[in-house]
Write a structure and sequence with these properties.
homodimer; alpha+beta; 3-stranded antiparallel beta sheet; 4 strands
Chain lengths: 177, 177
């Protein structure tokens, strides 16, 4: 798929997945895409765990209430380490977001669907930490995002967005030229 | 360019740019790519201003110390509005980072180079606010990132990254299968 095509084809898929597996070769390509993202001062604060072992998936499923996502054959868990880039500056959120965006595009490019689930697991009930413990993730890393990966069983849909001219301008705020 | 190709071709280019212009058509494609990124609860917290008017660029140049970036014919300024997505949750940083990553890829795909400049303008000296004021950006929006866009005058270089197995695993922390 062409880059711009993938960028515009990507949607947040919240439906169920078919039982078609995602081969390891494809998973590696997705993870590599994530790691290819830039990071503030090259601190590489993002790490990734792909879960495709049905036993491990089953364990993770017990702590999270996302019925459709549970039908996906792979879950990619995004980990971050809040390393200071310089002085008091930490770019870990920017770093993992860029890595996630690369993975969203790689996933669509390879014919799969996904959705960026973050609020569900970083909320006060700390589901992310429960998942991290199940995966033996050390305490200095946070599990901040879950990406289910698989073949969509339903059509993708698209939420409406504001028109271009409400969000993008030239040479000044709300200037059109 | 193929999506995965663009993901791996992207580097942080900090060199000078040639005087080849970037046509408006290409700028619009880059901005559209940015706006196509997802946002937490679809709040669309990110806005963009592309500056290609030499007079406006000259003004912006007076407040920032980035000699090479000043040779670029276009600067894309990334704005964010820290809207609450739900309860106390704000995903504005994630939102603009995903938008930036899409733009980095679109820029490379279209044959240009760029670099994500954020720390330079969000630091204590508040250069971002000075730039925002020059562009008439209202006070409830922050200018958080600058992307120069143009044709690279020098070869791109690549910073070294940790090997795959130091950052990506399967089914558990540091597990290889």
């Amino acid at each position: 798929m062409n880059t711009l095509e993938a960028i515009h084809a990507r949607t947040s898929y919240r439906g169920p997945y078919t039982d078609a597996p995602v081969p390891r070769e494809a998973i590696v390509k997705i993870l590599e895409a994530g790691l290819a993202a830039p990071s503030g001062c090259n601190k590489q604060t993002t790490s990734l765990i792909a879960v495709d072992d049905p036993q491990v998936l089953k364990k993770l499923h017990t702590v999270i209430d996302l019925e459709n996502a549970k039908t996906a054959p792979v879950w990619i868990c995004v980990l971050t380490k809040r390393i200071i880039a310089y002085r008091d500056k930490c770019f870990a959120t920017q770093d993992y977001s860029a890595a996630i965006q690369n993975m969203l595009l790689a996933i669509v490019d390879l014919g799969y669907e996904t959705c960026w689930y973050e609020g569900h697991i970083t909320d006060a009930d700390r589901i992310g930490r429960q998942m991290a413990d199940m995966l033996d993730v050390p305490q200095d890393m946070e599990l901040v995002c879950l990406l289910p990966v698989g073949v969509a069983a339903e059509k993708t849909t698209r939420r409406e967005k504001m028109p271009f001219m409400e969000r993008a301008w030239f040479n000044g705020y709300r200037r059109t030229e």
